[in-house]
Structure formats: structure tokens, C-alpha cells
Amino acid sequence: MRTIIATMIGYALFYFVRKNFSLAMPGLEADLGISKVSLGIFLTLNGIIYGLSRFVNGILADRMNARWYMAIGLALCAVANFAFGFGEDISTWITGEQTGDRFTNTMILFMGIMWMVNGLLQGAGFPPCARLLTHWIPPTELATKMSIWNTSHSIGAGLVVILCGYIMGHLGQNLSADPEAVARIAGHLGADPSDPAAMATVMNFAAHSGAWRWCFWIPSAISFAGAIGLVVFLRDTPSSVGLPELEGTELHEETAAAEAKGAEHKAFLMKHVFRNPLIWILGVANFFVYVVRFSVLDWGPSLLSQSKGVSMAHAGWLVAMFEIAGILGMLFAGWATDRWLKGRAHRTCVFCMAGAALFVFLFWRLPADAPIGLLFATLCAAGFCIYGPQALIGIAAANQATKKAAATANGLTGLFGYASTLVSGVGLGYVAQHYGWNWAYVGILAMALIGMAVFLLMWGARADGYDDPAAAKH
To answer: What gap in Å lies between CA 181 and CA 93, rounded to an integer?
Structure first.
């Protein structure tokens, strides 16, 4: 229980220094003039690097002390976020200027590098958790308990959205009485001075200029404190503290002996991960799951305000409630998998993706003047559905690869998941900017349907990959 709670809090704090970016984006655009396409590039590069990092860290974490691995990774993410908040000041120091093309290019380059570094360091978050959980939870209980653990994603993302929403609305410098500052912000946002609604948005940003910095500084301070807590409360494996390993996770004697040898451990990974078609199917499916998830999580405030006319205050809460609904969806999906589908998480994912496609379609077709409660209900229903697969893919990969390669398998599926930012990051930003949000909705809906079809490819697979002849026959 201590391992579950500590890793839940720790991984939630990784989201404090990752998903703070989505609420800071409107401020970065207003204060610094960074375009939506450039912000989309930030999201894409961060996601791709994170996916690669998670894959590499998955291989490393299977053979290292997960307690220190996770704690050091979180502390370094906090440092990268803190540096990002000083991006404008550091660019001024480098160039000796505060405006101009040279300053702007240097600033975007520095901040882009810092966000890519953060993506690299974020890869130290999930793999050690996969190692810890498969060592402390038996496979017959993994779907239920890991679904509970997976609420850490939504808890972290939801809390940081609320926190940063408060920061963006209450902190920063009030420049609304400065005509030059107001004109600069209007130019950055492309606002028409004759449009009262557009200028109201400009004045709102002018009243909280620079608040985006605190979206990085405050979460980084909280996360650094959390890294210290991980060192205090986490332990590595049961055997590392003199306890026996869990029953039900034994492998054949020859497999266990082979795992102790480096070369034969590689052969084990090749068999159970890299040459395992089920792991590759889960990876491809993860790509489509994450496109749908990140489209709302990363672009939610912009999408809601621009396509449905929702205020930024309501948009922040809607995105947070999307995450909270996801918590309920993860818990239900994990329980349903163990209760009705005998641990076959991939089957649960088929139904979840069908539900996500349905509710994305309903949300899209609602008119802009639809009651906020109806928008709320359909978006939350989509979150309820999409977070089931988000949690269960990791569970299915861990069970198929066994505890000896759980982190490696999750690293591989995560690589596909974060490659999705090619679509959900710069791809969605480009489509929304040049073709409008309707085509963005069409793309999100298509991704959900394709994801459902991919999960169907492994419908007949058994629940896990442990060397159990009875299970194989069943």
C-alpha cells in the first residue's frame, strides 16, 4: 500500500511539471508572441523525446533501483521547469536585448531546448513505477490495483490545471493601463481592436502579464519537495528489504536462471517484448489512444474557448473535470476487466474506444450556444471512456511481458503513445489554425475508431504471458 500511494503521488507530480504547459500556452502567446504552430512544435518535440526517453528508461529501469531512479528524475524535471520560467530573462542576458528578431529567436530556441530537456527527463517517471508495481502486486490483482494507481495521471493533470488556472487569473503584473503593452498583446493574439470581445480577452491577459512564469515556478517547487518524499517512502523490490517475491509471478526455472545472465536476459526481452506481436499491437493502439487524450488535455482550453465559446475560466475547469471523469473511467475499466473479462484488458479497451468515439462525435455536433452542462456531460463521458485504455494498455503490456520485462514493454508502448504528439501537437495546431476546429474534430473521431479496430486484432489473446501451461491452454 505504501508503494502504491508513494508512486501515485510521485507520478502525479511528474504531471505538475509536464501538463502545466497547456495552461501557460495562452500567456506565452500573449506576452511573448509565440504562435500556436510554434507552441504545437514544443508539444510535439517534448512528446517524441519523452516517448524515446521512456523507452530507453524502460530498459534501464528493469535493472536499476526504482526508488532513486524515480526520485532523481522528478527532481531534475523540477529544475528544468524552473529554468524554463526564466527563459525570457536568460535570453535577454544572452543577446543583451529585450526585443527584436534576434531576441525572439534566442528565446524560442532556449525555451524549446528546456522543454525538450524536460521531455527527456520525464521518461524516468513511469518505467520505475511499472517495475515497482509488478513486484509488489500479484498479477491476479494488477488490473484493479494498477487502475487505482493510474488515477495518478488524472489527479496530477487535473490539479495542475486548476492550480495554473488560478495562477493565470490571479498572479502577474497588471499592465492594462499601459497602452503600449495592451497594443503589443493585441498584436500577439491577432485581436481586432474594433472587436469588444477580442479586446476583453486582451485586457484580461494584460491584467496578469507574466503569470505564465509562475505556472512553471510553483509546480516545480512542489515537485522538488515530492522528490525528497519519494526517497523517504519508497523501497525497491520485496527482496531488497528481505521479503519473499510474490506468488504467481514465478517463471520456469530455466527462464529465471537465464534472466540472471546479461546475454540471456536480452534473449528474454526479445521473446517477451520485441518479438511479441501482442506488445506491438498494444503499442500501435496506444498511439491512437494518446492522440485522443492529448488533443483534449493539451489543446482543451484553446479548443473549448474557440470552437464552443467557453470562457477560459470554465475551460480550465472543464479540462480538469475531463481528467476527474477519467479517474472514474480507469477505476471502472480495471474492475470490469477483473470482474467480467478475466483479466483480458485488451477486450475492455475495445468497448472503451467505441464509447470515446461516440461521445467525441456528440460533443462535436453540439452547437456553440449549447448549455454548459451538456458540453460538460459529453466531454466528461469522453474522458471516462478514453482513460480506460490509457490505464489498461500499461497493465496489459506488463502482464504479457511478465514482471521481468514490464518496464521495457511499457517503454515500447509508451514510445508509440508519445509519438502521437506528431498528430496531437503540431498536427492539430496546424489544422486548427489553417482549416478550423471542425476538421480537428473529424481527425480526433477517426483516431478513436482506428484505435478500436487495432484492439480488436488481439481479441482472442490470453490475459498474461507467464509460463503457466494451464493458463496457456485456457
So the answer is: 22
Q: 275-327, pLDDT tens digit by residue?
A: 888 889 999 999 999 899 888 877 777 777 667 767 666 777 788 888 788 88
Rounded to whole angstroms, the Cα distance separating 210 from 182 reads 13
Residue 473 domain-assigned (yes or no): no
- Its domain, for residue 401, covers 2-173+208-237+261-467
**Residues 6+ positions from 1 with CB-CB distance below 8 Å:** none
Residue identified by cell 478500436 is: 452
Distance CA 415, CA 298 (A): 18
CA 308 to chain centre: 24
Residue 32 lies in a domain: yes
Three cell numbers at 467? Answer: 509460463
pLDDT single digits (tens) 31-61: 887 877 888 888 888 888 887 887 788 777 7
What one-letter code names the amino acid at 336?
A
Residue 56, class by beta-carbon neighbours within 10 Å (0-12 exposed, 13-18 middle, 19+ buried)?
middle
Residue 198 lies in a domain: no
> Exposed, middle or buried by CB within 10 Å (0-12, 13-18, 19+), for 215?
buried
Q: Is the dihedral of CA 338, 342, 344, 350 positive or negative?
A: negative
- The DSSP symbol for 247 reads T
Least Cα distance to 406 among 57, 5, 11, 46 occurs for 57
Could you tell me if 44 and 260 are in contact, meaning their C-beta atoms sit under 8 angstroms apart?
no
Q: How many domains does the chain have?
A: 1
Q: N- to C-terminal Cα distance for the chain?
A: 31
> Residue 387 maps to which CATH number?
1.20.1250.20
- 3-state DSSP call for residue 468? coil
Would the CA dihedral through 388, 394, 399, 400 be positive or negative?
A: positive
